[in-house]
């Protein structure tokens, strides 16, 4: 995979308060997107185990609306390499700044927590680490290896940054491949300068295609947010681009503005429109599609992985 040039290097180390100069009032959520506050004992136990092992989760850092439901089932999405990102995407609630050194013991602690939680399937994601020579690829690989040692029955899904196109990142992950490789495009290319200024649309597509080529049979996955100002035709074109990259699984969810300092929400997409997006994606040949207002990359990931395997087996049997 080609290295990204200086001309396309991301804007790093921006302070979160400078994401938008003016405040963007957060609109009231419609009925179909409201969730209950987490109160279950299982939620508390998941939180305790995460804290006990000194870990971060994207569920908390990104203020995921599904945290109560997922943690009640002890499904936590681990956030590795710290809690501070070198990127400043205007949709994201993870803090931006200069991250600290990598914690070499972190992969082992993640693996211990996964084993304690008894997870059948775990999602591992990270902050962007453009400061690292490999963008953090080796840390992902070490975490996958540690989980497979401590919890060999657990399947592993990773949701990675783009690694800034750094040489060797794909090869490192191909040597210790996950069961599912996920990298989100997030939005349509027209909106990248405002929403995902540190990333490049075609570099992200290239990463997804390169992982599929490097590990034949690997499930690949990507996600989109809607409600940022995209047009339906643009979303359809992104779907076509993802299928060209042989991506198996597409998630589509509603963008929810974390704070008034973040990118303004353009509108709330209706459940009927999500159904239409799901139908469109299925027609384009994705093996699996999840599209709903509350869909997130790791939402029901264990159930979806089982369905991915079932559908691939069915396709193989009928092919």
What is the CATH H-level superfamily? Aldolase class I
Question: Element order, helices and strands?
Answer: HEHHEEEHEHEHEHHEHEHEH
Shape: globular
Radius of gyration, taken over Cα atoms and rounded to an integer in Å:
18 Å
Question: Which ranges are low-confidence, i.e. pLDDT below 50, for 5 or more consecutive residues?
Answer: 1-21
Sheet with most strands: strand arrangement: 1-2-5-6-7-8-9-10
Enter the CATH topology name.
Answer: TIM Barrel
- Put simply, the count of helices is 11
Main pleated-sheet profile: 8 strands, mixed
CATH class: Alpha Beta
- State the distance separating the first and last CA atoms: 32 Å
In total, the number of domains comes to: 1
Helical content stands at 25-40%
């Amino acid at each position: 995979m080609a290295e990204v040039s200086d001309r396309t290097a991301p804007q790093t180390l921006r302070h979160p308060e400078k994401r938008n100069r003016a405040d963007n009032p957060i609109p009231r959520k419609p009925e179909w997107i409201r969730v209950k506050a987490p109160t279950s004992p299982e939620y508390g136990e998941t939180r305790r185990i995460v804290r006990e092992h000194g870990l971060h989760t994207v569920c908390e850092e990104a203020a995921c609306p599904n945290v109560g439901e997922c943690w009640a089932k002890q499904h936590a999405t681990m956030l590795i390499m710290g809690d501070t990102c070198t990127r400043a995407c205007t949709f994201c609630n993870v803090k931006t700044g200069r991250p600290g050194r990598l914690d070499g013991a972190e992969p082992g602690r993640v693996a211990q927590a996964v084993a304690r939680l008894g997870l059948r399937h775990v999602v591992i994601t990270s902050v962007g680490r453009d400061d690292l020579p490999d963008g953090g690829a080796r840390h992902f690989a070490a975490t996958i290896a540690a989980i497979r040692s401590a919890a060999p029955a657990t399947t592993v899904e990773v949701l990675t940054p783009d690694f800034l196109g750094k040489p060797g990142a794909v090869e490192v992950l191909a040597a210790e491949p996950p069961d599912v490789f996920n990298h989100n495009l997030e939005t349509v290319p027209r909106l990248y300068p405002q929403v995902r200024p540190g990333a490049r649309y075609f570099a992200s597509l290239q990463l997804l295609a390169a992982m599929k080529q490097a590990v034949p049979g690997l499930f690949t996955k990507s996600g989109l947010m809607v409600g940022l100002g995209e047009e339906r035709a643009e979303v359809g074109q992104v779907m076509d681009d993802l299928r060209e990259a042989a991506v198996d699984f597409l998630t589509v969810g509603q963008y929810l503005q974390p704070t008034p300092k973040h990118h303004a929400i353009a509108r709330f997409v209706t459940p009927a429109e999500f159904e239409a997006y799901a139908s469109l994606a299925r027609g384009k040949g994705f093996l699996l599609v999840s599209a709903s207002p509350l869909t997130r990359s790791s939402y029901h990931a264990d159930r979806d992985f089982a369905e991915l395997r079932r559908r691939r087996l069915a396709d193989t049997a009928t092919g």
